[in-house]
Amino acid sequence: MNPVLDQIKFMSKIVGLGRVLSMRKKHAEGLKYVRGYVATTCFWSLLNNGLLDEIREKGSVEIKDFAERRGLALGALGSICEYLDGIKVIRYMHGRCSLVPGGKTLLEEPRGLFDLLYGYEPVLREIENLLKREKTYGKDVWRRGDAVARGSGELGRQFPFLAVRELVFSNGFRRVLDIGCGDLEFLFLLCERPDIACFGIDNDARALECAQRRLKQSDLRDRITVTLGDMFEVEDVATRFRGIDAITAIDVFHEYLLAGPDKVIDLLSAFRRHFPEAHLVVAEFFKLPHKWLRRIPTVTLEHHLLHALTNQVILPIGEWIEVFEKSGYRIVEKKLIHAIGHGYFVLK
Ligand SMILES: C[S@@+](CC[C@H](N)C(=O)[O-])C[C@H]1O[C@@H](n2cnc3c(N)ncnc32)[C@H](O)[C@@H]1O
Q1: 323: which of 4, 66, 98, 291 lies 20 to 30 Å off by Cα?
Q2: pLDDT tens profile 57-84
Q3: DSSP-derived 3-state class of residue 93
């Protein structure tokens, strides 16, 4: 008898054919989620060790040689490669790895998703302890700031930075102060237009170090300056940066909403007072109604969850508008992209 038929017959004898078929279907449903976790974890392990980039550069890499050069456990590396070969992310044959189309795609636009999620991995790992109140975010558990910055930079470059840049260009702003400038990616994009001068401030020493390193390696050193600065020190910031046409702030304000909107309202009012000539260009995520996300479960579901677990408040669009208006700003332009729950505003 055909050995597969023989196996089905044997299983049917034990649990019944109907049960075999229904179990198979249900396990396939569970496997979708379980595999997502295992695949992501294995993908990170190769991405973070540089193997995937080396494969991309060279076409293929010998695993034994790579493990020796990096001091990695060859057995574990081989198993990970075999697994990712099985789910068709890479090809692993005769000790060499290469990329297949599925894996190549993951290293393109979706790479930012993997990096961003890696930033939040410590939070997901502790989710049970957070749930049981045995640990607290910000005290016992932290996201990985560098991976978050890398991931949001990669994703930002695909659309949000281009959207804010469009608002800067179309309004003719030439001297731009970017607050919470992160790794400077947005200002690099702005400088593609030769008549723009940019200033970036960030209050995070690691972000600043990364920004300064990137600036040093670029040819934009005479067009961009980046310094340590706290946006809440508005008077000091206004003294240091004069003649600014626009202040840009991409995903910065939502970090200060935990105790309510007053802190951000006061900050924006101070911007208006100290930069009376400048426009304020803001990009912020807005909360999408759960009813909407149930119907169209976009990546905003993960975004809302990870922000909620890390005490970052995402306001519904109506509340953002209230914050702007209460601070005295008038909305000159507003663009909302519901697919990613991101809004772009020019305020005066
Ligand atoms: C979510 S990141 C966004 C970074 C960058 N704008 C982007 O879109 O890639 C928020 C940034 O704001 C900075 N930031 C937070 N509070 C700040 C403050 N009080 N003054 C200046 N920068 C601040 C953080 O260090 C971080 O780099």
Answers
A1: 291
A2: 999 999 999 999 999 999 999 999 999 9
A3: strand
